[in-house]
Design brief:
Oligomer: single chain
Low-confidence stretches: 269-273
Shape: globular
Helix content: over 70%
Pfam families: LPG_synthase_TM
Mean pLDDT: 75
GO cellular component, one term: plasma membrane
Number of domains: 1
Strand content: under 5%
Number of strands: 0
Subcellular location: Cell membrane
Order of helices and strands: HHHHHHHHHHHHHH
Membrane topology: Multi-pass membrane protein
Keywords: Cell membrane, Membrane, Transmembrane, Transmembrane helix
């Protein structure tokens, strides 16, 4: 078989996996008769798509800023093009981090002298995004009041609160050291770079990870943009819920439900977290709302995933129209 056909066949298989998961969820976990009886507001569905598109675009802009902080030139147009392809790749790899590898490969090939910085920009972008999500989860859990839930569900939420608190504390300490550590941290990095086994690795990644020390304003902007990204995604899902149900959980309750679901979907188990996200959202729809709701969390989560797949079509266009430089990176990735 010609290599081109092998590539096309393998790509088709990878895209078939998330499609199969969506079909399985659609046919075995949705009461279509009940859905057809529900009044639908297509205007709110369109608004949900636009809000989600704004959220994804904001995340693309955040990565562009972080790349520039590493001293790597990257236009906003390039950042949006590459990020769109990466967003598509998130649906063909486990978890929601598949596209990050393509970003790292593309930047490393384009800037051979700054390969470590290129990879660091991707990890920092993912870290800042995750930190923003953890902050949103922590803030939401502070106001969560699942008084109508069972003791077992309240215990599980308490465990989530504890785990979130630990992760936020660790993340805050690490980022504070990297941003505000000063010369002491630089000296520690230099000492660690002399160690036998990890020294060479520390010497390479130490400086790129310390780039926020020279760009503290960019750090706060990146965190604020992360909060904005996740908040817009929460609003998008709330609009979907309102388009299908008269009395879904409130917007405040969605600010508890959606971030926890996103955190669960980030675990590398299924393509783009498909399946995991729907199960967690359904459980949270039964646990968080102060007033019991007839809304189906799994259905709303599935519609939200379909909205993201719709946005990924843009990435498909960029994927098939990639230039030579992008194709070389794609071939290396595959």
């Amino acid at each position: 078989m010609h290599p081109t056909w092998k590539t096309i066949g393998w790509t088709a298989i990878k895209f078939a996996i998330p499609a199969a998961i969506i079909l399985w969820l659609a046919f075995f976990h949705i009461n279509w008769a009940l859905l057809s009886a529900q009044p639908k507001n297509y205007g709110l569905l369109a608004a949900a798509l636009l809000v989600a598109l704004a959220a994804v675009s904001l995340s693309f802009a955040r990565w562009c800023i972080l790349v520039r902080c590493q001293g790597i030139s990257l236009s906003m147009v390039e950042a949006f093009r590459i990020s769109s392809i990466c967003f598509l790749f998130n649906f063909v790899s486990a978890g929601s981090v598949g596209g990050d590898l393509f970003k790292a490969i593309f930047l490393a090939k384009r800037r051979p002298g700054k390969r470590i910085e290129a990879v660091a920009s991707v990890f920092v972008d993912r870290g800042v995004g995750l930190y923003g999500l953890l902050l949103l989860v922590a803030l939401a859990l502070l106001v969560a009041d699942p008084s109508g839930s069972s003791d077992e569900n309240r215990d599980r939420l308490d465990q989530i609160k504890l785990a979130t608190g630990i992760l936020v504390s660790i993340g805050t300490v690490v980022l504070a050291v990297l941003v505000f550590g000063g010369k002491t941290v630089d000296q520690l990095v230099q000492l660690a770079s002399r160690l036998r086994w990890i020294g060479p690795w520390v010497a390479k990644v130490g400086a790129p990870l310390r780039m926020f020390h020279r760009h503290p304003i960019a750090f706060f902007v990146a965190v604020a943009m992360s909060l904005g990204v996740h908040s817009l995604l929460v609003i998008s899902m709330y609009l979907i819920a309102r388009s299908l149900y008269v009395h879904p959980p409130t917007l405040l309750e969605h600010f508890v439900i959606v971030p926890i679901g996103m955190l669960a979907a980030a675990v590398p188990i299924t393509p783009a977290g498909l399946g995991v996200y729907e199960v967690v959202i359904e459980w949270l729809y039964r646990t968080i709302p102060a007033t019991k709701t007839a809304a189906s969390g799994s259905l709303i989560a599935l519609i939200f995933e379909i909205v993201k797949v719709t946005m990924a079509i843009v990435g498909t266009v960029f994927y098939w129209t990639a230039n030579q430089e992008e194709r070389e990176s794609l071939e290396e990735l595959e």
